[in-house]
Amino acid sequence: MAENDGILVSPAPGETRDALADGMMRLLRPAVEELDERVRGVRQSQLELREQIDGLCGELKKINEEQQVPVDLEPYVKKLMNARRRVMVVNNILQNAQERLGRLHQSVSRETARRKALLEPPNAGPVM
């Protein structure tokens, strides 16, 4: 409530709602941006891990083919391929989460811009 000439005046319901929404957006924006950045980092790590697993699988297959001693590396190759599959599943989940975060961030930005436009008085143009 604001005081106007000694009289307490409550703000208009729309002003309170707008102030609350603006405060929530200011509060959530840094968290969303930080989470988005961390998801990007994890996705990059997942891609690097998948590349390393692919390289290791290729090396193990090559060693298995060239090896004179009959050591069965196939179970290890299967384990690596299973790990690769799980990494890809996690990567897909992260990608979907990052896309949702991106859409949320866009929505917050649009809503912030819309509210700022509503709060700012329109320019009357040049005075002649």
Describe the structure.
The chain is mainly alpha-helical. It has 2 domains: 12-68; 70-120. The chain is built from 2 helices and 2 strands; from the N terminus they run ββαα. It has a two-stranded antiparallel sheet with strand order 1-2. The chain is rod-shaped and about 95 Å long. The model has no long low-confidence stretch (mean pLDDT 79). One of its GO terms (biological process) is intracellular protein transport. Keywords: Coiled coil. Residues 32-100 form a coiled coil.
**Would you identify the regions where 5 or more consecutive residues have pLDDT less than 50?**
none
Determine the strand fraction and express it as a percent band: under 5%
What's the total count of β strands?
2
Spatial strand arrangement across the major sheet: 1-2
Query: Roughly how many Å apart are the termini?
Result: 40 Å
Average per-residue pLDDT, rounded, comes to: 79
Report the helical percentage: over 70%
